Amino acid sequence: MSRVLSKKPGITCNWLPRLETTAENGSARPRITSSSQSAPVSPSRSIGQRIDLAERTGLDKTLAKRLGIAAPPRQDQNSGMQLDRSDLADFTYFLAVAKHRSFRRASLELGISASALSHAIRGLESRIGVRLLNRTNRSVTLTAAGEDLQAALTKPFEAIGEAVENLNRFRNAPAGRIRLNVPSDAANLLLGPVLPTFIDRYPDVQIDLAVNNHMIDVIEGGFDAGIRYGGTVPEDMVAQRLSADIGWIVAGSLGYLERYGTPTHPDDLQNHRCLRFLLGDDRVYHWEFDRNGEKIQVDVPGSVTLDDSRSMLTLLAGGAGLMYGPEPLLSPLMKAGTVRLVLQEWTSPGPGFHIYYSSHRQVPTGLRLLIDLIREMQPLGL
């Protein structure tokens, strides 16, 4: 519900190939299709055996002895490693792990299990003969080789993703997947009325919606875009307005007002029970008021602090205290006669919802269509 919820946006590519897996003993294992894969060198082999293997694979003896490993097969002195489809897929998985520094988060983005992802990365490291990641029970970090590989692959893979996205121009119906990070108020008030129509119009576009009031790095989270109140959109992002400005009001249930009275000035709130809201940066929000140019912020008292406006509505209707929130959120309860508006002349206007995304990436077709539909339907005005 708060007006200060997020700092950074993000984008993800969704053209990435899937890891082929086979079921064995109830677990997913990667299927290696590379004919050039070399078996890992057993730790029990002697240095002499490793050097003999190095001679067969073309690795310099001195380097082989220093590393204690054998190089992958080489066609000749200049040809290097031969790539196939499994290598390209595994590079995609490596980039996801490198971005998130977590197999679990990367697996969620890619839609495969963390164990299958780990097997794929180990297979890639085995084939290229270089360790890319340092793994512990608590962290995943890049080796120097891993950092170089990430830097070299990121832009080419992004370019491929944009090229695939451009193919939507030639489709009879758009397709793809978009990932959004939004606060709960935007999910309910802005997207809730629009998504049923969007799904009917574009059934082949998949939407992953993460509802989160906390400030997160949406770039690292792999999101195509974020939605926030206008005053909290990062300055270096491309932003588009999705709604008109929103008034922030105070309401109380009929039972509460009968029991504790009706405040007539913001200062009266110090003698009331208030439902306090926790901002995305873990600060308690100070209620803001505006009347004829006079602006007041009040650190209201209250025994309950929440970070979810829907839960707050339940407490409001039950008479737990006064609630401060966006007028569209409270309006249904006021129309039903469950709660009543107080301090009406102190209503504080605030910026409406904006969608934002990186200025350095192409806007996915599905995201552009969603923006157009929100601006067409205008569930909160515009």
Topology (SSEs and partners):
Layout: E1 21-24, E2 27-30, H1 47-57, H2 61-67, H3 85-100, H4 103-110, H5 114-128, E3 133-135, E4 140-142, H6 144-166, E5 176-182, H7 184-191, H8 195-201, E6 205-211, E7 225-229, E8 238-241, E9 246-253, H9 254-260, E10 275-277, E11 287-291, E12 294-298, E13 304-306, H10 309-317, E14 323-326, H11 327-335, E15 339-342, E16 348-350, E17 353-357, H12 365-377
Parallel strand pairs: 5-6, 5-7, 10-13
Antiparallel strand pairs: 1-2, 3-4, 7-17, 8-17, 9-14, 9-15, 9-16, 11-12
Helix pairs in contact: 3-4, 3-5, 3-6, 4-5
Oligomer: single chain
Total number of beta strands: 17
- In CATH, the homologous superfamily of the largest domain goes by the name Winged helix-like DNA-binding domain superfamily/Winged helix DNA-binding domain
Indicate the CATH architecture of the largest domain.
Orthogonal Bundle
Q: Runs with pLDDT <50, length 5+?
A: 4-79
Largest sheet: 5 strands, mixed
What is the arithmetic mean of pLDDT?
Answer: 80
Query: What fold name goes in the CATH topology slot of the largest domain?
Result: Arc Repressor Mutant, subunit A
What is the general shape? Answer: elongated
N- to C-terminal distance: 19 Å
Beta-sheet strand percentage? 15-25%
Adjacency order of strands in the biggest sheet? 6-5-7-17-8
Number of helices: 12
Please, how many domains? 3
**Name of the level-1 CATH class of the largest domain:** Mainly Alpha
